[in-house]
Amino acid sequence: MPPRFDPSTRAMSQEPTQERASDRYNARAVEPRWQKIWKERGVFRTRNDDPRPKFYVLEMFPYPSGRIHIGHGRNYVMGDVLARYKRMAGFNVLHPMGWDAFGLPAENAAIERRVHPKEWTYENIATMREQLQLLGLSLDWDREIATCDPSYYVEQQRIFLDFLDNGLAYRKESEVNWDPVDNTVLANEQVIDGRGWRSGAVVERRKLSQWFFRITAFAQELLDAIDTLDRWPDKVRLMQRNWIGRSEGLEVLFEFARGEAPAGADAVKVYTTRPDTLYGASFLALSPDHPLTRDLAGKNQALAAFVAECKKGGTSAEEIETQEKLGFDTGLKVVHPLDDKRTVPVFVANFVLMDYGTGAIFGCPAHDQRDLDFARKYALPVVPVVLPPDTDAGAFAIGDVAYDGDGTLINSGFLDGMSVPDAKEAVARRLERFRVGGEPQGTRKVNFRLRDWGISRQRYWGCPIPVIHCESCGPVGVPRADLPVLLPEDVTFDRPGNPLDRAKAWREVACPKCGKPARRETDTMDTFVDSSWYFLRYASDNAQQPLDKAAVGHWLPVDQYIGGIEHAILHLLYSRFFTRALKACGRIDLEEPFAGLFTQGMIVHETYKDQDGKWLFPEEVKVLGTGKAVKIDDGTPVAVSPPEKMSKSKRNVVAPEAVADTYGVDCARWFMLSDTPPERDSEWTQGGIEGAWRFVQRIWRLVNEAIELGAPAAANRPDAFGEPALALRRAAHALAAQVADDVERLRFNVAVAHVYEFTNAFASAVAAARGAAPVPADLAYALREAAEIAVLVISPMTPHLAEECWATLGHEGLVAEAGWPRVDAALLRRDTVTLPIQINGKKRDDIVVPREATTAEVEEAVLQLESVRKALDGRAPKRIIVVPQRIVNVVA
RNA sequence: GCGGGCGUGGCGGAACUGGUAGACGCAGCGGACUCAAAAUCCGCCGUCCUCACGGAUAUGUCGGUUCGAGUCCGACCGCCCGCACCA
Q: Fewer CB atoms near the end CB (10 Å): N or C, chain A?
């Protein structure tokens, strides 16, 4: 083990004879003691019948992947600061923790290390629970849950049956990534460059019959309610709006040209949001999955081959849309809906998604980039039909870039001269009147990009879907009395595919309806289902009633939810759907689960590689500054790369235990809150943690000095305060007010800066007191008051240090149970203000005026200023702008 | 491809709703204390001109609105993130 910087041992070795015990704060000894006391006294246990106003703080629960590194700790520490602060501010705080415990990594571990997913998961939970407890988080561990526990997922199975009964769960066919070598379904992340991550085989898209939740039934509602989420980041709200993707458009029927209609189809239905560009249509494109494509491919070998080619590669939108645009000319032609003399060719194209709209589009190359790329490739006409404003029609031509802006219609028959919105309306009106086979040729249609949520996973380690398939009765819900459907434990992972398919004894059951032999559903639920209601589970302190309507009514919505931006769409949208769906089923009375949302950034760290290109742990490296570093054991040079997300594979991780041993947990907490705004990525550095260590020591020293020099605990307040006692009191009360505001707004880095600012003032006051003998009574009082306020204020951030200081100050109770310091508003008010004086917008002077000075008084005073008189040089000012209590600008 | 975000000293960043740009911390430099070092304390610290007082300039680039722009608007450049089976 390489030597590590250890400030406490370094400090211990120096002149121990001159030190008093109080000179050094020994976090390693102090922190476990307070954690034990918190635990023994049950300080953070929450009761549902507590009469104080509620506040629910929740950080997104972790996946138990093994061990946590310090990077995982940031959002828990931020949540903890808020929870501790809110407790001090008089709230009954719910701050629970649990485990998102189902999922793919456990199965990978089972395959790679021959350990059962359950065993692997629970071992990880035990390790990570201990690590989280090390951070001193004020969590109610009595409410801990794990989603893989039958006591949790039994309720999830009941919810599934509720959804089934209410038409919110159904089966349909959908595509998956299929690995033809491993014979297994792959997650998008398991598809790398179109190949399976384990087998390397080219991935195919394949259809399977799967379970879906009808989230689209709430599409409009989910969209509308985003407006009410005013304590969510705008960014997330926008991402959700775009994800739901409401569009208003027109479904248009394109009839096949005479004599060309393939069997069973007279027309193709196309969805468009740009009916105004209809005259610019130069082709029609069908999705490779369109029913018509399938019919045609049955009779056309070349088309079948093309469709097969399209099915290669993954199912993600990213892959589909970045592929080269490919088309296959079917040879068929359709008649232009607005001009029966024109026909356009029908292609099958790989970029047309079956899941959106009708699975068929018309292409207007001039005004859609994808269509333009396609048209150029297949030499189709490009006719501009929208002329940008202030453009000459003769000079306007489309090159490589489509024009999707506003303008005036051209080359468009009866639409010529109209604006885009007018043309949209005119086309809709006309096509609504036209008939094709008795149907209107055009139908206005609101479309959503949002698709129903496919929850089937062909995997073992997930919540079993409580359904039995019967030859005669079809899919039948498992009777509630028979729940939970437990995962069978005697399964093997030595072969590819879903072990549940092979668990014969478990799979083969009698049909609950007719009693005939039937088989269990072997798909399990997407783990997003597990995380769509866990925040409701915490509200109930009763394991028998995991989803308790009254408890949910009391605690929900979550007042502050904290988690990574990577969950901005799916997890949050699914959870919003779930509360609505549960309400529709009568289970709860809640629509929006999260009133406040905060998305925190990650902790990043530099990466190090030795001369052989091997990754090195930070503790193996000595950083010399100026970007250079060497290996500690042999002094060879180390390549330093910019900070990135902590990950085991790159070894740029810091273990919480190591930080706790060397500096103490409070230093880690303080550092995680310092400097960087919480929503941004923050870099973990040696310098930073050492700065935190200096701060902790400084507070300890100052508090002890203040005790020595200050008034005793119960001293009476003097009637009058002179400077500098008044200045110190002002600083202390301002600190309490500022930090309260900073924490409420989750601006932890600013709170830290305010504490530093105060600490500097406090240190000056202590130094002044040390110089005065005896210390005047007013300053003595102010010193003690300042020390107490400081300790209370830092306690949400560095709770162990605060408890130790609080006890040293002579208090019997715990800081964890103390109230936030009462701020004396009179101390924050100033009688005079300093106004900066600008001349022509540049600052030239300052002026001190009474706080209540009128504009006229300020103007008069400003004109007397030497600097202003000089600048005006006898002339009258053109203008004087006085912003009360802010600034004065003299326009000369 | 589609969607979203972010650019301020050597570094992390502060600046409430358009009102003194650079708070606070890190690093650095100088000094005190010390036999010496560490720790601690004091001072300096965007750039340029000036002995100094002070002035000019400065928030990715260019332009606009305004008495006044880091903040608002437009264009551009650069970096980052998400995209439905990772959680």
A: N
